[in-house]
Design goal:
Shape: globular
Bound molecules: FE2/S2 (inorganic) cluster
CATH architecture: Roll
Largest sheet: 5 strands, mixed
Number of helices: 3
Strand content: 15-25%
């Protein structure tokens, strides 16, 4: 699945307009730092343009995204450890989907819906356990 979810309202999200760093700690605890250049933002699916998911994937960091980044699963669940003020607010659709994610925290976001504007360095963590019903079925 990919594209846009016709049942959801697109969130109000401004893509980054200045360089920033995105640090991600993966499920194994490995830390990767990506230097994000707004002139080279991935502007393609999966996820909203400029989303954390699209940046991570373009930077070679693997993150589950079973629904293709259309806010219809919770496999792209991340914790935003710092820099959350630089990201768009989660809308009701994202909040509803996050409710299905395991190990929910106040810092939880869906990486496909979380769009940083570049005004702060961002640090995110991928939970050790993410729901992926497709993989769990095998
Ligand atoms: S990839 Fe499915 S909600 Fe983000």
């Amino acid at each position: 699945m990919a594209g846009k979810n016709p049942f959801l309202t697109a969130p109000d999200a401004a893509v980054a307009d200045r360089p920033f760093s995105l640090v991600v700690i993966d499920e194994a605890g490995k830390e990767v730092t990506l230097a994000v250049d707004p002139a080279r933002l991935p502007n393609a699916e999966p996820g909203l343009p400029g989303s954390v998911l699209s940046i991570l994937l373009a930077g070679g960091v693997s993150l589950e995204h079973s629904c293709g980044g259309v806010c219809a699963c919770s496999t792209c669940h991340i914790y935003v450890e710092s820099g959350a003020s630089s990201c768009n607010e989660a809308n009701d659709d994202e909040a509803d989907m996050l409710d299905t994610a395991p190990a929910l925290k106040s810092t939880s976001r869906l990486a496909c819906q979380c769009v940083p504007d570049g005004s702060a360095a961002l640090r995110v963590r991928i939970p050790r356990w993410n729901r992926n019903a497709v993989k769990e079925g095998h």
